[in-house]
Amino acid sequence: MVIYLHKNGERAGPFTLEKIQARLDTGELSVSDPAWFEGCSDWLMVQDVPGILLPGGDHLSQVATVPPFDAYQGDEPYVFASYAHKDAAMVYGEITRFHEAGCNVWYDEGIDASNEWPEEIAKAVIGCAVFLIFVTPRATASVNCRNEVNLALNKNKPFLAIYLEETELPPGLQLRMGDLQAIFRYNIPVDRYERKSQGALYQLLGTAPTKKLMKEMFGTSLSPELLEQMVESGEMPNLGGEETQITAYFSDVQAFSSFSGSLEPSQLVAFMNEYLTAMLDVLYEQRGTFVKYIGDAIVAMFGAPIPFPDHPYQAVKTGLLMLKRQAELREKWKGEGDKWPDFGPNMQTRVGCNTGNAIVGNMGAVGHFEYSMMGDTVNLGARCESAARAYGAFCMVTEDTQRAAEATKDDIAYRYLDKIVVKGRPQPVSFYEPVGFKSDLTQEVQDCLDCFGQGIEKYLAQDWDSALEEFEKAKPLEPNQPNVTPGADKNPSMVLIERCQAMKENPPGDDWDGVGVYPK
User: Fold this and answer.
1) Where are the alpha helices (DSSP H) in 286-411?
2) What is the mean pLDDT of residues 300-311?
3) Which of 10, 27, 109, 154 lies at a 20 to 30 A Cα distance from 261?
4) Residues in a beta bridge with 358
5) Which pTM was predicted?
6) 293: left (phi > 0), else alpha (psi -120 to 50), else beta?
7) φ, ψ (nearest 5 deg) of residue 275
């Protein structure tokens, strides 16, 4: 028999029955992990694979569904778990995990029905802090489950549905449950499902999470220092979303798509793993929060979920340190001969940052949440990264980030690049290039910045000839030169020379406020 598994969002396999059994026996697999085998029309679970022995040596039909713990009877907030008794073998494992993580759980322990039992169930639903239903075709067909759902929704109970199997809701339930919070257990990786489900329950309950859960939820997003700070405080961030000040951080590899096609898949993975590992090491060292990868791009934030006042400075510092680390990697790759195409030794990354208020928290489609950020601040941060290339810069930040960072520590050299109108913003935005740490600048680069700064003064005063003279002086002193610096096809002096020549021919008028035209 050919068997496939669904791990980390991708199909894995094929496996033999013996291999699946061995992984199940060692605990590497769970009985509820998604599985497909010959003859299936859709994904089922490991426990459904013909011939599989569950832990203890039983087939699914032979498993004794003994209640794993006593249903909660105290006065603290608790979760009411609704399920079909035919699903007890699956559900008991789920509620046991919640119970062991510190959630109070009330559930029907399989007591024989009596005249009084519906009253007990109704009281438990009415008294619960969160209503949880494990959705399967058996549950949606159960009159008892339907009644429990209707009562919970009539009482406006916080509601969470966990779909253990792909299930089409009957029209009545679809009308009532279709837009409510749900997690689809059968099509997401186990570790992610466990984090999401426990996190959702804690959020709905309003109770403190366990230290283990906090580490599971944020262990890959936060630096060890910030993670330990969160764990020691015992305070979970507001996963439901809140507005707070952050610095949004974006980095992207220049011309990556053209390079990726020149490598075999295994080579590409090895190359990018080395690059991304080095970049995330820098991010974590500077207390950044990793949000996600978008291909070769890194999306991150500073200042959430753990707030700290110097997040703008830490973001800019991270950008410069990443570029510095990348330069070291280029030298390493260059020394490895023909192992990598020319792209490796010439690889270049661009960075963009913006500081301001943003919404942070669990975001995404129902059942597919990620701790992330959104809002105009985030969009402008992404725009900084993409627009940097037009100015011949490898790192570009907004004036809000530059001012806040410089107020924290004055050890980074910046230069004003431009002021342009950005879509969605009523006022023009000023952009700056963090050139480098002042202690690292050569005399030549310092002279370049002096000439460039004087050129900007003349440019804003519409003294085009004097501005051109200063930019021409700065041009050969620029730290990044075409055909010399990897990835450079222009630099800021070259861009401003072209700008001044255009404006000399077509002056903007006496009322010009310095707003430039976005360079191409």
Assistant:
1) 311-334, 343-346, 376-387, 399-408
2) 92
3) 10
4) 244
5) 0.64
6) beta
7) -65, -50
